[in-house]
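Summary of Year 1 activities. Much of the first year was spent building the evaluation harness for sequence design. The harness presents a backbone, in tokenized form, and records the residue chosen at every position. We chose the following record to illustrate the format because it has been used consistently in internal testing since the harness was completed.
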């Protein structure tokens, strides 16, 4: 857990900004809901922007990072989870606590109020914690879809994967089609963490941990069936202190052009000296 206490004072010191290239190692399906269907089209389309180009919603990437960090911290257990929704078939459970040093709540925010735990007494807290981490929508690098790839795609930028669910008793097939962004496609990812006190800075190591966990997990739907493997490269991490916004001071580059492990080492080696430069 972190060094935060209920008396920790919050005031913007600066922002850590990480930009990276996210590459699809296998087809990626981040769903957009079924909506209206076209004849011959997929019944599970991917999220697209106003120009019809696939993108990865920041909420999907942020939610996956949160889920992986909850699991790695041992917090994805009934006594640590609360219900966001209890609608039958659409139950949503996330980690929430009233502990001042809870890193998940510090990174992703916490709202006051009464929440029903999955197991145990109802959680009732008056603490409100501002979210430190913002994850933005990741647009597609259209040039990553090469002419050779386009020749084999079902649509201009996406492929359709055909799957079958087989009834174990009758052997009846239940075919389904899933739209995916093809392997080799690249997206531009951007994550920003607000540092509101010196105790916040080490939380960024947890963000990097979440991204590394994601590389060996899956993003979006169909992960257990081969979809959603991604990798991060061409990373650049910069620090923009309060003077950058108030006085136009230059940003400080902490690491660039490296893999996630190298970025982790650079952050640890810095000993967060950029905080002291702000004071």
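For this record, the design step produced the sequence shown next.
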């Amino acid at each position: 857990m972190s060094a935060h206490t209920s008396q920790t004072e919050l005031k913007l010191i600066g922002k850590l900004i990480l930009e990276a290239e996210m590459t699809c190692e296998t087809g990626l399906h981040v769903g957009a809901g079924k909506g209206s269907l076209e004849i011959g089209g997929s019944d599970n389309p991917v999220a697209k922007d106003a120009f019809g180009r696939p993108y990865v919603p920041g909420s999907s990437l942020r939610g996956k990072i949160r889920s992986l960090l909850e699991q790695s911290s041992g917090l994805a257990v009934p006594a640590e989870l609360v219900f966001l929704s209890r609608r039958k078939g659409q139950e949503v459970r996330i980690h929430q606590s009233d502990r001042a040093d809870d890193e998940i709540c510090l990174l992703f925010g916490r709202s006051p109020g009464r929440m029903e735990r999955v197991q145990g007494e109802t959680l009732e807290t008056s603490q409100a914690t501002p979210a430190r981490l913002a994850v933005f929508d990741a647009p597609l690098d259209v040039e990553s879809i090469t002419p050779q790839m386009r020749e084999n795609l079902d649509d201009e930028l996406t492929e359709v994967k055909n799957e079958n669910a087989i009834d174990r008793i009758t052997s009846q097939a239940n075919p389904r089609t899933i739209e995916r962004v093809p392997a080799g496609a690249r997206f531009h990812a951007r994550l920003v963490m607000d540092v509101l006190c010196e105790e916040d800075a080490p939380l960024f190591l947890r963000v990097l941990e979440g991204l590394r966990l994601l590389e060996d997990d899956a993003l979006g739907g169909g992960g257990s069936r081969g979809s959603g493997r991604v990798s991060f490269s061409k990373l650049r991490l910069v620090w923009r202190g309060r003077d950058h916004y108030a006085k136009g001071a230059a940003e400080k580059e902490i690491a660039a052009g490296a893999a996630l492990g190298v970025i982790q080492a650079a952050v640890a080696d810095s000993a967060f000296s950029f905080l002291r430069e702000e004071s």
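The mean pLDDT is 91. Quantitative recovery figures across the full test set are reported in Table 2.
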